[in-house]
Amino acid sequence: MAIFTYEAQELFQWLIMQEDIVVVDVRNEKDFKNFHVEAPYPFPLHNISYYEFMEDEEGSVGRIPKGSQVRIVCAKEGSAKYVAEIFDKFGYDVGYLTGGIKTWGNLLVPKLLTKGSDYELYQFIRPGKASCSYGLISGKEMMLFDPSRNIDFYLNFAKEKGCILTKTFETHLQADYIAGSRDLSARTGAIFYGNDGDFSSSKNPYTSLQDAEIHRFSQGGPDVRVLFTPGHTPGSTSFIVDEKYIISGDMMFIHSVGRPDLGGKAEEWAGLLFDSIQMIKKLDPTLMVLPAHYMDWEEANDELIFTRTLAEVLDRNKDIYGLETLESFIGFIKANMRPQPEEYAVIRLVNANLREEDEEKQEELDLGKNECAASTYAKQQAEKGAGA
Fold this sequence. Notes:
Layout: E1 4-6, H1 8-16, E2 22-25, H2 29-34, E3 45-47, H3 50-55, H4 57-61, E4 69-73, H5 78-89, E5 93-97, H6 101-106, E6 109-112, E7 120-126, E8 131-138, E9 141-145, H7 151-160, E10 164-169, H8 181-188, E11 191-194, H9 196-199, E12 207-208, E13 214-215, E14 224-228, E15 237-241, E16 245-249, E17 257-258, H10 266-280, E18 288-291, E19 308-309, H11 310-316, H12 318-321, H13 326-335, H14 343-351, H15 359-366, E20 373-374, H16 377-387
Parallel strand pairs: 1-5, 2-3, 2-4, 4-5, 9-10, 10-11, 11-12, 16-18
Antiparallel strand pairs: 6-7, 7-8, 8-9, 13-14, 14-15, 15-16, 17-20, 18-19
Helix pairs in contact: 10-13
């Protein structure tokens, strides 16, 4: 059988269609544990390092059932090709991922939220980062919210839709991935909007957002209302689209809320977040929440879109939203604090335009799932202790 290559988009489609494939990741165990391919449904995934194949071809190949359709993943493609040749020698149907794991990390999957509407709102799911950005199209114009550094994707998407990018918004100064608004603005002339609470100390050429201001398209279309929701960061901002959707950034997730401890001011920012939560609880319960991140695919709906009504989000997180005093909320935050990834400090500086990194280093920083939720960490640790 001939060895073939495949792209990240093809792998994602195979996985959501539950095709009969076996994914073999040949990176070392540490890199695999930090970041690997995940999907909405269970699938066979094996971590057998490249070095194991070098030392024992037959034994390593023998760990995969004969007749399997094998899809190899590695760091930069070269090792995957080497291992694919071994599988091919043993008679397997085998292909390897073009460009390595970084292409999975940068993959964006568009999902239309507004079927039958006179405007289009898209959720761009990034499976490798468990994050979401958003695109709003009306007429021949597009606005973006929290774009990733894969700017070519957004520009090609706009071209396919026959529109131009006019505005790009950041819900906050990101710490877990490198944002794309600055580069998109430089490439297209689109206005880059950010909240002074996060961006005033940066060197970004941004335009200040104002609480409650309305952003519009040049010819009709939905209004976008700015809502300051500080807490995850001092400048955290949500955007309400057509009074039907709330792009909540890292302030509110389908499961949990955003961590207020990432800036090293847990109590101060927790107070801001507590006040924002009280405000959010008074919004229209039928608003559809559109988060910047998700914890796992269980949060997606039947169409594999990450959105729920505000009422459902409040109910799913009633152990958090039901905390009635600031003291109890701070107690919850402190109980669930855990170390943040070391690269977050560097990513903040890059996103603030206070530090430059080359393309390879940016790719390295940008890999790995987010750690932005104030989740049930304390409970998980207690359960681990009880099982020890």
